[in-house]
Amino acid sequence: MLDYIDQLGELDTDGVEPMSHVHPLCNRFREDVVTNGDDREHILANAPEEKDGTFVVPRTFD
Amino acid sequence: MGILDCTAVELGKKIQAGEVSVREAVEAVIEQIEQTEGTYHCYITWDKEGALRQADLIQKKIDAKELTGPLAGVPVAIKDNMTTEGMLTTCASKILGNFVPTYTAEAVRHLQEAGVVIIGKANMDEFAMGSTTETSAYGATKNPWNPEHVPGGSSGGSAAAVAAKECFFALGSDTGGSIRQPAAFCGVVGLKPTYGTVSRYGLIAYGSSLDQIGPLCKDVTDTAVVLETIAKADEKDSTSILRNDTNFTEALIEDVAGIKIGIPRDYFGEGLDPEVSAAVKKAAEELRERGAIVEEFDLSLVDYAIPAYYTIADAEASSNLERFDGIKYGYRTAEYEGLHNMYKKTRSEGFGEEVKRRIMLGSFVLSSGYYDAYYLKALKVKALIKQAFDDAFEKYDIILGPVAPTTAPKLGASLSDPLKMYLGDIYTISVNLAGLPGISVPCGVDSKGLPIGLQMIADCFNENVLIQAAYTYEKIREQLQERQG
Amino acid sequence: MAKEYETVIGLEVHVELATKTKIFCGCSTRFGGEPNTHTCPVCTGMPGSLPVLNKQVVEYAAAVGLATNCDITRHCKFDRKNYFYPDNPQNYQISQLYLPICRNGYVEIETKDADQNAVTKKVGIHEIHMEEDAGKLVHDEWGDCSLVDYNRSGVPLIEIVSEPDMRSADEVIAYLEKLRMIIQYLGASDCKLQEGSMRADVNLSVREVGSEQFGTRTEMKNLNSFTSITHAIEGEKNRQIDLLEAGEKVVQETRRWDDVKMESYAMRSKEDAQDYRYFPDPDLIPVEISEEWLDELRAKQPEFRPEKIERYKKEYDIPEYDIEIITGTKRMADIFEEAAALCGQPKKVSNWLMVETMRLLKENNMDADQIRFAPEHLAKLIQLVDQKVINQTTAKEIFEVIFAEDIDPERYVEEHGLKQVSDEGALHKTVEEVIAANPQSVADYRAGKEKALGFLVGQTMKIMKGKADPATVNKLLKDLL
User: Domain end: C374, C396, C416, which one?
Assistant: First the structure.
């Protein structure tokens, strides 16, 4: 598959801007207003392991 | 005409007129599922009791004149990569095998507001990565036209469910052809809208800059109605676009006079099945006879679309799928030693082979040292492909061609050669790269009895042209069939 | 040791922005709260969730950039930094690598040169970018596991990356204080190291004086006070010099500073060899900052402390020391200016702020930003004293109520009948009574003890329940004795 992707190298793309988004849009914002409340029950509903409102994970070391 | 033979719109009308109750419609679908689901396996999850409960609730609202839209009471299948509150959503993966979302995808929410009855979640390729629905962790779906063949993918379950009458319409998602190709393989209509038209909130992401949700329906009229219902800007999706031209049903006009149709010569090279080629060319002729201006042209860069697509889609997917780590939801491996071992085992056990393959490829093309040569390069190629289409749409209103190089392959034939499978996306992929709308409509059957799809592509935001041309072509075929039989 | 070494320091400062909501969702950023009660599908990385950018974050980031002389990137975007860690719900952090919002700025700090002369030095700012904070990991003592709280996940941060222009701990502190002043004046953050709303990572290397090349640098984290920063810099500088003197090499690594043990140790280098696979986030679209928007932002830039101090020196006849204190925060400076304009008594306003206000802030564990009273009320209070409607003691009592409840002092005085008596005639009788009741003090005073007069004034005030003009009482007593 990688060889196949190497094909891209054949194309001359000098001076072409990489296009991340197809439409030239910008500036999509939200206002700084709190719209969410306490949704903890839902957020933890699918947790594989949960304790006192937190997600339990194997010990991490900083 | 039995209930199941109705289109969604026809059913909706009968329900509004009181000729058919919602319960009757749902029961008809359930009966069908009970008969054929064992063979076709269109659904991962379907909920008989839940559907009947919904039916009664919706009937009440219809009776109270609260639900008067064309889709009220109509049973639908939702591809299992769109979250549905309270209903298992797996993306056909083990890693989400127990995930019950607490929020519903925006597009599905719009359908619910219109009063549909969600029958269940349709089978798909795992995380939408595939073209045959064979990478599903829950078993393959079979093509209702011939169960030894695949229904296509990744929205194979959605397309098959419509074809098998296990629902009246379905929602699918399309990243590289995943609505249009299964629609073609299953003989139904499938439309991928312009990127940004339908909110992606709640659509479990594969290739974020390419994904779009769209309808799979029995005919073009249904397609236009469903699209109208779900095409709404969403403030929760930064890539969603506010459009004021979404009255798609107004484009259901039988007229193609003067519409300029371009057929890329590059699409008809070797690798294209002669029967498919013939059917597509015949369709073009029929449109020309109705007044369309049809001509061949050169659409360059066709071959580069596939490597560009896989680079971009897999890069984005490799990042999008990092969140599946056994911590917040989903599958977690049973035994592990330490955090990173837990990550590794969870993901190794939870993801299928194709998903792992694409994650690896995606990670590679983003890795330092390769980013410029692969990922950035692919984004530049994407820009060139868009340019090529822009140039083409200066001359043409519609670009017409096949949906896939063949009709539905046999089960098990594709997975042994992933590269060949990827090459099958050749006609659909560049449409996603350029963010264009594309539709697949049935245009015949091959000598094996398998459906052939005709693809039409329009410029961004021009679904109306597609719908008009597709609707006209559908009428042409209806009239042809009437004359013949 | 014949060689002379120079310390080269660069800083990466993370600042938590004072927005009400997170950077990509509408969850509250309020500190505290039970774990995971300020969360939603977006900031917990649920499948299908999507980010939407908080406009206020962009405004704060650009404001900080303007105040630090940066070029504002007109077209900037967000990138994903991919790495696996439980405090990172999507296992990628949305940040800005390729096109950060601000670039190529500087701040000026006051420092001393080799001869201890005061000089102004520019510290370059390489870039400022927006990014999201991670959640919090707490280690569970009972189980052998860790617990994740995503309340902080998605809180907006700006990261300010300096050039390696600093050469000493003093310069580092001066730089941090300058940044803090600027950011606090903009209202963009309260910049508290101890609370984590400002975090400084120190990148330090040493080289021989005169060398053009940079030495290998180490990064130090977990520095949450100016003293620990100073200690860490000293400690690491010495450690590196010792290594080099011993003929060894400095290893590029991340080190954690222990301010109790006064030493650093290498952290598990999980991040050092990591490839973050940065790429533009496809779920977010670029931010375009137009000339108009930039003009609006420029217009909103406040007068910062150095300029304010200079102006106050010219405009107000108050001591420099006072000016330093009241310009410590923009809030206090604003209150000062408004109150002074209303009552025309800048020195008195300044006194009230420096003495009573600061005292009450300290007692209530509050910051100047949390002052709730209106400048008009302070101004009126001062006027009431000037007009001798109330005396200073009463004024102090009333001020406590103004501070706590922002009452209108004029109305309060009326409602509670706090007007002081200053008419000599009205006070005469009481003063006479006091003189009669305290023969010893009278004698003491007449014998030359000035203090005794104060006692008699105090007694009078007591009888008058504090509502007498002490000056009048004083005069009366003197007259009568």
Answer: C416
| DSSP classification of residue B251 | G
Superfamily covering domain B3-251: Amidase signature (AS) domain (3.90.1300.10)
Contact between B168 and B7 under an 8 Å Cβ cutoff? The reply is: yes
Using CA of residue B70, residue B75, residue B81, residue B84, what is the dihedral sign?
positive
pLDDT digits (tens, 9 = 90+) for B127-186: 999 999 999 999 999 999 999 999 999 999 999 999 999 999 999 999 999 999 999 999
Tokens at residue B182, please?
A: 């299964």
Q: Tell me the nearest-neighbour CA distance from A15 into chain B, angstroms.
A: 9
d(CA C70, CA C125): 8
SS (H, E, C) A1-62: CHHHHHHHHHCCCCCCCCCCCCCCCCCCEECCCCCCCCCHHHHHCCCCCEECCEEEEECCCC
Q: Judged by CB atoms within 8 Å, which residues 69-88 of C form the interface with A?
A: 75, 77, 85-86
pTM of the model: 0.92
Q: Confirm whether B154 is a catalytic residue.
A: yes
The amino acid that residue C428 corresponds to is: H
Confirm if B368 and B423 have CB atoms less than 8 A apart.
no
Amino acid identity of residue B132, one-letter, is: T
DSSP run (H or E) holding C108: strand C102-112
Whether residue C266 is found in the same domain as residue C307: no
Cα separation, B224 vs C466, in Å, equals 84
Most trustworthy range by pLDDT among B169-173, B369-373, C322-326: B169-173
Write the CB contacts of C163 (distance below 8 Å, at least 6 apart in sequence): C10, C123, C124, C125, C126
Q: Is residue C48 a contact partner of residue B204, using CB atoms and an 8 Å limit? A: yes
Q: Cis ω on the peptide bond leading into residue C168 (within 30° of 0)?
A: no
Query: Which residues on chain B place their C-beta less than 8 Å from a C-beta of chain C?
Result: 82-83, 89, 91, 96, 99, 101-103, 105, 200-205, 207-209, 235-239, 315-316, 318-319, 322-325, 327-329, 339-340, 343, 363, 366-368, 371, 375
Question: What's the rounded Cα separation, in Å, for the pair B93 and B125?
Answer: 9
Backbone angles phi, psi at C248, to 5 degrees: -95, 170
The whole-angstrom distance between B213's CA and the closest CA on chain A is 17
C61 — contact with chain A (CB < 8 Å)?
Answer: no
Residue B400 buriedness (CB in 10 A; 0-12 / 13-18 / 19+): buried
User: Is the separation of the CB atoms in C379 and C350 below 8 Å?
Assistant: no
Is B79 tagged catalytic? Answer: yes
Could you give the C-alpha distances from C11 to C172, C179, C220, in angstroms and in order? 8, 11, 10
Amino acid at B293: I
- Burial grade of C54 (CB within 10 A; 0-12, 13-18, 19 or more): buried
> Cβ distance C238 to C210 under 8 Å?
no
Closest CA to C105 of C63, C62, C159, C65: C65
Closest by Cβ to B435, choosing from A23, A28, A48: A23
Mutate to test the interface with C, among A21, A22, A31, A34 (most CBs of C within 10 A): A34
Domain that holds residue C408: 303-416
Catalytic residue among B21, B178, B240, B430: B178
Q: What is the DSSP letter of C23?
A: S
Angle at B383 between CA B382 and CA B389, to 5 degrees: 90
Domain locations in chain B? 3-251
C86·A55 Cβ contact <8 A: yes
Q: Which amino acid is at C351?
A: N
Domain contains C293 = no
A45 touches chain C (CB under 8 A): no
- For residue C229, being part of any structural domain is answered with yes
The answer to whether position C296 is within a domain reads no
Q: B451-460, C317-326, C468-477: lowest mean pLDDT where?
A: C468-477
Least confident stretch, B322-331, B414-423, C259-268:
B414-423
